[in-house]
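Below: protein 1.
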Amino acid sequence: MLALRILDLKDFTGKLFIGEMFQHFSFVEASFTTFVTYTLDGQLHKEFFDSEQKPMRTYCLWEDVQAQCFSIIKGKRTPLNFKIVFRLSSSNVEKLLSQSGIALKPEDIYGLYLNCQFDGKQLLCTTGTSLKIFTLDKQLDRVWDEMVRKFFRKNQVAFEDA
């Protein structure tokens, strides 16, 4: 698990709520506390869709809820706190496995997660992995952590280890 402290909060939240940086991540859940607490679940309800429109994925994408989340927090006052949980898309998990040579199959992995948590003063981003099988090998954790670091550098996010 990796924990990164975001150094430029304004820049990062702009990329998070307005920019395209996270749009292709799966959105798992979020909570925002302003004058009340809003909780959002990103799991898709497939029965809502017509049979020909049913999505193949389990969670919506961040781009599907990004504007609604921004509308919750925008204004003159900073939210008291928020937490957003992202999950790497299945296609990107497959790419990560093939590029890294890790001896796991995509179906062995439940999810590779990125949690963004703001406590009113600082914003921490932490990584996590969830497997469907038991293994003592931590190579996937290390590769996922390094991928997040590279992703942040590529998107010019200022961070330090927390």
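Below: protein 2.
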Amino acid sequence: MDLLISVGLPLSLAIIMLSLGIGLEIADFRRVLTRGYPFAIGALCQVVLLPVAAFATVALFALPPEIAVGFMILSFCPGGVTSNILSKLAKGDVALSVSLTAVISLLSMLTVPFLAAWSINYFMGDDAPEVSITGLAIAMFLITTLPVAIGVSIRHFAIEFANRIEPGLSKLATTLFVLVVLAALAGNWQLFVDNLGIMGAGLITLNLGLLLIGLGLARVANLSWNEAKTVSIETGIQNSTLGITLAALITGTESGFSPLALPSAVYGITMYAVALPFILWFRRR
């Protein structure tokens, strides 16, 4: 189990982020400058409103400290490849989705370590493990930012090679994601069973609320319907593998997967059930 967490988990996330980068182009980053307003609305939802909604959910359901921290860690994670796929299925603005995922994923190297350290100290108090913000930032760079940058570079300098390996890399990333979620659940099975009711209700409420908040704010901001669909999905769909990895980086590997990883692991399953009705609705409109 220690080997899986210390080596397999970061490697899995790095491959998932490389898969994300392989699908990106330099133009996806330039697009932020030409479509600043829709991007700003999406970024506001992801970076500000998402953690606020998670904090409100934690308070509403009176979650145990470690589970509460897990909720907050999940809320700090950007969208991933999944949000781009769901935006495409929903007939949303895929270019906007990709731009949001790309830029917020890179920014997370700076934002997530500070926010994670704050949430641990706030909810766990004297029981909080020592968190190295610098260490987290370096780890975030190595397993998220660097693989994305490598993927973008491969597509830029060897597009034919990128097109050849992208399908296989995407399938590998999906397989690794499933294995990581199952391992996190198995490592905390009793805690998972004991808290499934309240944790599941909290995650579904948060997920549903975020999809509606993103959609509502986008419409109030007068974004187009396709842009609004994308902002909704980008707000409601997080990179749960990153949440599980962050939990492991914070608590270490000595005792297996941390309880902090449970919300991200359960969310990795429930998000599809919550998002499916929205995707079907979005496709019809």
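The mean pLDDT is 85.
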